[in-house]
């Protein structure tokens, strides 16, 4: 089963607002041995919010993705500003590209992460590789 | 943040990764994919054993960048391809991930850093690059 071709260009509803607490930043920083001085969250922290958007994409039955066949192929973050405690963030995911290579769907996603005022904070680009039944 | 010159080799950072780290990262990130904590599931999909989250390895890369920059909050751009899994043994020692960086360019936009992230002498990330705020 391949992914629905109409997926390209589709934008999904914004994720539920995520309140970033100091405790969540510390937990994430400690998990990677990083330090947190009370200011900026680690640079990859926005994956927590982007992951929720990607999960919604993968769980959507109309999309046709089988979760256990998905591999994270590529990831890039572009920060407008660092995430800090007190931010309330949500991600809006768009499928930028959809290609098929060797029986796999290569899904290029862009999650625009914005704060409670709608101001941009970070863009997280993820490429998901969805292997077909025979791949 | 000052003192970076094109061509600078940044001090190599070595981080040990254990199963306990992966469990902790799963909780902190919300990624509970079983291939990151169950040998049974990992081997059933053809992996040699439990592997680190690709995002965990990228987080270690960000940690090295914070160390070089002197503080968190300087990373503007960070990206890579996940090319080779980091297999994490079920012991107390874990496996070492080594992060190296070279300053490619210093411009008004910031400090462009070319990275090399290896495990057991093999590159595990493809074209890892970062831009640090000047």
Order of helices and strands of chain B: EHHHEEEEE
Question: How many beta strands in the DSSP annotation of chain B?
Answer: 6
**Biggest beta-sheet profile of chain A:** 5 strands, antiparallel
Strand content of chain A: 35-45%
- Total helices of chain B: the number is 3
| Poorly predicted segments of chain A | none
Helix content of chain A: 10-25%
Largest sheet of chain B: 6 strands, antiparallel
Average predicted confidence as pLDDT of chain A: 92
Q: Which oligomeric form is depicted?
A: heterodimer
Order of strands across the widest beta sheet of chain A? 1-3-4-5-2
Based on CA inertia axes, which overall geometry of chain A fits? elongated
Strand content of chain B: 35-45%
Interface with most residues: A-B, 35 and 32 residues
Summarize the amount of helix of chain B as a percent range.
10-25%
Give the beta-strand count of chain A: 5
Low-confidence stretches of chain B: none
List key phrases describing it.
heterodimer, A: 135 residues, alpha+beta, five-stranded antiparallel β-sheet, 17% helix, 36% strand, B: 134 residues, six-stranded antiparallel β-sheet, 3 helices, 6 strands, 25% helix
Outline the structure in words.
The complex is a heterodimer of chains A (135) and B (134). Chain A is of the alpha+beta class and 135 residues long. Chain A is built from 2 helices and 5 strands. Chain A has helices at 22-31, 47-59; strands at residues 18-19, 70-79, 88-101, 104-114, 120-131. In chain A, a hairpin with a 5-residue loop joins strand 4 (104-114) and strand 5. By secondary structure, chain B is an alpha+beta fold. Helix content of chain B is 25%, strand content 37%. Chain B has 3 helices and 6 strands; from the N terminus they run E-H-H-H-E-E-E-E-E. In chain B, strands 1, 2, 3, 4, 5 and 6 form a 6-stranded antiparallel beta sheet that branches. The radius of gyration of chain B is 16 Å and the shape is elongated. The mean pLDDT of chain B is 95. The interface between A and B is medium-sized, with 35 and 32 residues.
